[in-house]
Model the fold of this input.
Amino acid sequence: MLSYPIALKPDTNGTLLVTFPDVPEAITVGKDEADALVQALDALEAALEIYFSEKRPIPLPSKVKRGQKAVTLPALATSKVLLANEMVNQKVRKADLARRLKVNQVQIDRLLNFRHSSKIEMVESAFAALGKRLEVRAV
Done:
């Protein structure tokens, strides 16, 4: 899974400002550290959707340093990031992928949407249509 390092900084109004060194578009605040981490995941997913919609490669996270906080994307979201990046790398449009999978383009829109609970089998099929294989490991 992808773990993005974050920076937590006390804000002037008593909240914590959360920024992501790897994804400058992701910025949020939290009442305390626990709330900041919850808000950070939402901010990260929202920012990554910008990359999806603009067909830009999604930045992969840098290494988390000792003592640094991080936000980890769930497994399904991680697979969607990797799929989107592979589509950008291969210059495959959503319509192209839909044709390869013999599905409606709306299904591809959902597949690339973090808020949609896609089936992992569909993500796996999309990777196969791109000549890739999705691997899941427990470590």
Q: What stands out?
A: The chain has a mean pLDDT of 92. The chain has two domains: 3-72, 75-129. Residues 75-129 form one domain. Helices lie at 33-53, 75-90, 94-101, 105-111, 120-129.
